[in-house]
């Protein structure tokens, strides 16, 4: 195999790249090494060429990379830390790239965190893997012809979203192949827990980034036939005979520390309509059952225990929604959390009629147990716009909270019987036909504590969650493409 790889490595300082360069040169497949430098004061390094860039995430930089992608393959390293390739790792990636006619190859790898080497498996790319934060690791081996073709079609100059633009365009030309072998070691400096990282995409400081990412994703959807025009099915809200206008539904399992606060926040609601509270207790064993029973003297409180034991959170939702006492609108409240004030329920129901939607999503604030705001603060999901929200929803990881549904639609769609991602699946499915309404007032306090389901997940669990959400996106994207085909 001849020298068929050009490498593009961020260059921050000499100490950072010397070991990386040495390791790359040990492979007989490297043709040229280009150092991506942010300033002209860095010294030259033997047998390497310097390309001055503004950011590795910009379109301008990718156009420079494409210009120098003169070998069959182009290796782009995305981190400003030392990279150590495994023995014959580049040869392995090249063989699989050629065997599979891949557009891009990426792999599992090791990370050094606080001096400790840990395995970091990544997940397999799917048709619906549209998240802009999909974790490929830091080593991306592109087919240069596909890379150059993708870059040549870039007609918008992005400051932040160019790498995202590149991989979506490349995915239209060939497969992004995951090698589930540990082929390299990188240094990782972001040591935050999973529960701290999951809100990065809604940080107001990243708003400019999100706007660019949305533009890239929307264009991609249009190119593959998955984009939906802002045309929605009108709702008359006259299906069914409901005794209650709204039902708050709380699925719960072993939340003795929090369930009473949640119940009280519902019972304090002031409305112009009749509502009730349906609590689906999934066989709690810690005293939660007894705590709920204290409130059943209030005729608005319905305490249900399912007649089966195979229900996740989604299954508990189905159990409550299909109960004869469920109201016209089913409104979410997690057993950890509380409504922000006594007007939440009224605002939600009003939004259904005012915005003619089958689902309403509110705004929430992250708090500790003292109801003090904690980072990242208010989560308003302003990336959801009436015109493009349902398209952009395929890119982001969640739609916000609290969520509420027009019960006849929810009964028809039904909730996936899972305990993760069920709400996201609903949002995508419902938004295919119906408008999703938005409320930007803080309606909900999301309390973070050690028992939150996503507070601190290991890599295996995170990968499982992300794989499932990508499956949800894939199913939905295929359904939308078929919908558009039938409409022609």
SSE topology:
Blueprint: E1 5-11, H1 14-25, E2 30-37, E3 48-52, H2 59-67, E4 73-77, E5 83-85, H3 89-99, E6 104-113, E7 116-120, E8 139-143, H4 144-152, H5 162-171, E9 176-187, H6 194-197, H7 207-224, E10 246-252, H8 259-267, E11 275-281, H9 288-293, E12 301-304, H10 313-321, E13 329-332, E14 338-339, H11 344-355, E15 359-367, E16 373-379, H12 389-392, E17 403-406, H13 407-413, H14 422-431, E18 436-447, H15 459-487
Parallel strand pairs: 1-2, 1-4, 2-3, 6-9, 10-11, 10-13, 11-12, 15-18
Antiparallel strand pairs: 4-8, 5-9, 6-7, 6-8, 13-17, 14-18, 15-16, 15-17
Name some characteristics of this structure.
single chain; 488 residues; alpha/beta; Spore Coat Polysaccharide Biosynthesis Protein SpsA, Chain A; 15 helices; elongated
Please describe what this structure looks like.
This protein is about 35% helix and about 25% strand. The protein has about 500 residues and is an alpha/beta fold. The chain has two domains: about 5-190, Spore Coat Polysaccharide Biosynthesis Protein SpsA, Chain A (Alpha-Beta Complex), CATH 3.90.550.10; about 245-485, Alpha-Beta Complex (Spore Coat Polysaccharide Biosynthesis Protein SpsA, Chain A). The strands form two sheets. Strands 1, 2, 3, 4, 5, 6, 7, 8 and 9 form a nine-stranded mixed β-sheet that branches. It is elongated, with a radius of gyration of 25 Å. The two termini are about 50 Å apart. Mean pLDDT is about 95; it is low at about 195-200.
């Amino acid at each position: 195999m001849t020298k068929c790889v050009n490498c593009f490595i961020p260059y921050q300082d000499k100490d950072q790249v010397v070991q990386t360069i040495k390791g790359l040169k040990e492979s007989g497949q490297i043709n040229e090494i280009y150092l991506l430098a942010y300033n002209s004061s860095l010294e030259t390094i033997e047998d390497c060429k310097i390309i001055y860039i503004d950011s590795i995430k910009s379109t301008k930089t990718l156009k420079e990379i494409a210009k120098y992608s003169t070998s069959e393959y182009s290796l782009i390293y995305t981190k400003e830390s030392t990279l150590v390739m495994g023995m014959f790792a580049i040869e392995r990636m090249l063989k699989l790239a050629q065997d599979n006619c891949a557009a891009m190859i990426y792999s599992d790898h090791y990370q050094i965190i606080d001096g400790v080497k840990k395995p970091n498996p990544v997940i397999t790319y799917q048709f619906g893997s549209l998240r802009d934060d999909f974790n490929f690791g830091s080593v991306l081996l592109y087919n240069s012809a596909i890379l150059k073709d993708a870059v040549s079609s870039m007609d918008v100059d992005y400051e932040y979203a160019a790498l995202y633009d590149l991989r979506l365009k490349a995915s239209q030309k060939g497969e992004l192949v995951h090698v589930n072998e540990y082929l390299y070691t990188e240094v990782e400096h972001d040591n935050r827990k999973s529960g701290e990282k999951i809100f990065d995409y809604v940080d107001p400081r990243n708003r400019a980034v999100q706007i660019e990412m949305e533009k890239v994703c929307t264009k991609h959807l249009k190119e593959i036939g998955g984009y939906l025009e802002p045309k929605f099915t009108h709702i008359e809200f006259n299906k069914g005979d409901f005794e209650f206008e709204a039902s708050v539904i709380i699925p719960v399992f072993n939340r003795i520390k929090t369930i009473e606060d949640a119940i009280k926040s519902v019972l304090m609601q002031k409305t112009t309509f009749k509502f009730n509270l349906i609590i689906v207790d999934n066989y709690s064993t810690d005293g939660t059952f007894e705590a709920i029973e204290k409130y059943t003297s209030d005729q608005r409180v319905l305490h249900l225990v399912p007649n089966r034991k195979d229900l996740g959170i989604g299954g508990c939702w189905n159990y409550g929604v299909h109960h004869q006492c469920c109201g016209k609108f089913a409104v979410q409240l997690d057993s950890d959390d509380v409504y922000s004030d006594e007007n939440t329920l009224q605002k939600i129901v009003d939004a259904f009629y005012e915005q003619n939607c089958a689902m309403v999503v509110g705004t929430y604030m992250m708090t500790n147990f003292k109801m003090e705001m904690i980072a990242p603060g208010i989560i308003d999901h302003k990336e959801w716009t009436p015109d493009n929200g349902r398209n952009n929803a395929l890119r982001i990881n969640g739609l916000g909270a609290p969520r509420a549904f027009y019960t006849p639609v929810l009964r028809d769609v039904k909730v996936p019987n899972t305990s993760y991602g069920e709400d996201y699946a609903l949002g995508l499915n419902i938004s295919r036909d119906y408008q999703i309404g938005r409320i930007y007032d803080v309606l909900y306090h999301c309390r973070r504590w050690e028992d939150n389901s996503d507070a601190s997940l290991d890599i295996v669990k995170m990968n499982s969650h992300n794989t499932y959400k990508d499956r949800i996106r894939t199913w939905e994207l295929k359904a939308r493409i078929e919908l558009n085909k039938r409409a022609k």
